Amino acid sequence: MRPFASxxxxxxIGGGAAGATAAQFARKQSRDAEIIVFEASRYPQYSKxxxxxxxxxxxxxxxxxxxxxxxxxxxNRIDLCLGSSVTEIDPATKCVKATGGCGNRVIEYDxxxxxxxxxxxxPKIEGVYTDGGGLLQGVFLFRDxxxxxxxxxxxEKAKRRVLIVGAGLVGLELAEAMHTNGHEVLxxxxxxxxLPTMIDPDMAQLLEQEIxxxxxxxxxxxxxxSIRPADNGLIATLVSRKDGKSExxxxxxxxxxxxxxxxxxxxxxxxxxxxxxxxIIVDRRCxxxxxxxxxxxxxxxxxxxxxxV
Length: 309
Known about the structure:
The protein has 309 residues and is α/β, with parallel strands linked by helices. It has two domains: 9-119 and 261-301, FAD/NAD(P)-binding domain; 122-258, 3-Layer(bba) Sandwich (FAD/NAD(P)-binding domain), CATH 3.50.50.60. It has helices at residues 17-29, 51-56, 70-75, 145-155, 169-180, 201-213, 265-269, and strands at 9-13, 34-39, 78-82, 84-90, 95-100, 105-108, 111-114, 118-120, 139-141, 161-165, 184-188, 217-219, 222-230, 233-240, 246-251, 253-256, 260-262, 280-281, 293-295, 300-301. The protein has a five-stranded parallel β-sheet. The chain has a five-stranded parallel β-sheet with strand order 9-16-10-11-12. A three-stranded antiparallel β-sheet has the order 4-5-6, with no helix packed on it. A hairpin with a 4-residue loop joins strand 4 and strand 5. The longest helix is centred in the first third of the chain and has 13 residues, at 17-29. It is elongated, with a radius of gyration of 22 Å. The protein starts with 8 loop residues before the first strand and ends in an 8-residue tail after the last strand.
């Protein structure tokens, strides 16, 4: 507890599913604790899993994805700072500096929780970015609500020829959404089958047959080598991993559903231990190697419940 403080203060960095849940359970444990959540985006906790279904029209609008509104946080006396980012942490003085929608703030804490989530993992693909560092027009990521809004606005302007890179859950859900709305869809997967980390090849084969039956083109063992703009859209160069042969596809929309990586830079700066992939290592209590510093959600690495590894 901070010297002379009458109640515990908990600071949470990130207000997504993990961070907001941490705030909710902190309030259940203590009616008196001061709880502050810094969330870099403009949105309170929402269902990212529902984003493809807003694109397809199965969910009417993005507002329907909000799980806990700003009013809910207010009623539960949780200080939710939207559009605000923590820029510095001093673990010695237990102090964070934040800036953004809630102004510039310097706040002491008793417990600090990293719920910083993950960011898209973009493979090296020639031409994806412009010289200015932004994505080439017609190229999209699909991680958060702003990504989904941008893609929806783009696809509402015309029927699109869509290339989806990655046949994991996100890629396949996007393919379904795009196809439902009448867009032409091609999915490419670097590995040998769809959902490669979830199902065996024999099960994947059945799924691939069903995907093709519905009119979605699919190519496994294939990767996107480069993209370049053309008069009629984008020219995507695809390379087969089986024989090394390349071919060009003319599309006007490319969505990169190529996985994610943990957002742990801030945690690493203050000395939190991380794993090989950059996830923050936590124990059974979600505590890091630093006393009073915890981490939850997609940014973490923890022992498997079954294997203990």
